[in-house]
Amino acid sequence: MEPIGYRKERAKEVLEAHNIDLLIASTPVNVFYTTGLPVTHVAPNPILYVLKNQYPFLSMVRRDGEESAIVWSLYDSVEEFSWLDPSEVFRAGAVEAAVKTLINKIKEWELANKTIALESLMPRYQSEALRNELSEANFIEGDSAFLDMRLVKTEEEIRRIKKSTEVAEKAIQACIDATELNVKDTELLKVARKTIVEEGAWGWDHLTMNIGPSDPEAPGLGIPVTPNDIVRFDFGAVWEGYVSDVSRGVVVGEEPKKAAQAMEYMIQLQEYCVDNIKPGVDPKQLSDDAHKFLKDLTKRGFYLITGHHIGLECEEAHMFSPMGAMDIPFEKNMVLDIEVWLNVRGQGLVGIEDCYRVTNTGCERLSSLDKKIVVK
Predict the structure, then answer these.
(1) DSSP letter string over 68-120?
(2) I want to staple 93 with a disulfide (CB 3.0 to 4.6 A). Which of 73, 167, 191, 242 is the partner?
(3) Which domains does the chain have, with CATH numbers?
């Protein structure tokens, strides 16, 4: 099979630029990215993820872009899921065996005194074993190298994100259709899960929702839909490993006037951001300009303006956000979620988020639902 997002030539460029001789992936998303092995928590059968505390998985990328991996000894379907040469996939039946195999391979490749990049989230027992056994190696942080590889998407990755977005929107629409007075958030979440599964997705990345001022990060408490309160659905599906992030609202009764006005501002703000994103644009300048644009619309309320990369994770990195901006320009085939929010008393954050692909000349919107709050 062909790699999904991993590109050997790009990996070589990145490792050269970072002066890395060996890059080791230990987190599920980066092992999946470099191997295709179903190691994530939403894989069709997440057994490799479930058992990682006993049978860890790792992947290794050498300076020339060649890859190897370590996987559970009883897993017998590497060739069905991975593009790696089977001879480069090494088996281990225990934690100690996996770490020993990794160390032995590094020595065999004559990299024991070279520059080795590790993920900051690598389990401590792995990183400490490497540092103890390979005292002459130069260990550095590898997170930025993985981001450099992942932020610009392949056509296959974009296809998967588009499909994931389509499924998330179908789940949102199903929930909007099911929203009526006194329906509980628990029932609406069931509708979302059922729709996502029936659409053939691997599962859901997140099912965030709130009813009026309820906490959107902790739904499922049995809160009922109440008159004139916005019900917000913020969903991300997972399609063949890739996620989406879309948010829409619905209200039964009368849309609160302040919320309606806030949504108008947020739609204009989102479209301002999108209209000004194209290859070469500085994200910090865009963020500054977007803040000025909003202040010309309204001086009221707490607000958030964020453009985050999306792909194997909902928030791979923040291109611009309240926490700052990346020091790289926008590039063709970056995929971003543009989300903007304004706090409205009694309703919480009111706003919108959609997925966009950066093109040669601007942005392609991947989501398709109408942006305004639905009134029933």
Answers:
(1) EEEEETT---HHHH--S-GGGEEEESSHHHHHHHHHHHHHHTT-TTSEEEE-T
(2) 73
(3) 8-150 (3.40.350.10), 155-375 (3.90.230.10)
Residues 6+ apart with CB under 8 A from 286: 273, 276, 277, 307, 320, 325
Coil, strand, or helix at residue 221?
coil
101-137 pLDDT, tens digit each:
999 999 999 999 999 999 999 999 999 999 999 999 9
pLDDT in tens, 28-46: 999 999 999 999 999 999 9
Structure tokens at 263: 């949504």
Percentage, residues of the chain above pLDDT 90: 96
Residue 210 CA: distances (Å) to CA of 8, 63, 150, 295, 334 = 43, 47, 32, 27, 30
Contacts of 232 (CB under 8 A, 6+ apart): 208, 209, 210, 216, 247, 248, 249, 348, 349, 350
What is the DSSP code (8-state) at residue 153? Answer: P
Listed residue (164, 186, 166, 165) closest to 175, CA to CA: 186
Q: How far apart are CA 326 and CA 4, in angstroms?
A: 25
CA atoms within 13 A on the CB side of 121: 11
Angle at the Cα of 23 (from 21 to 24), degrees rounded to 5? 140
Amino acid at the residue 113: N
Radius of gyration, alpha carbons of the chain? 23
- pTM for the full predicted model: 0.96
Identity of the amino acid at 272: Y
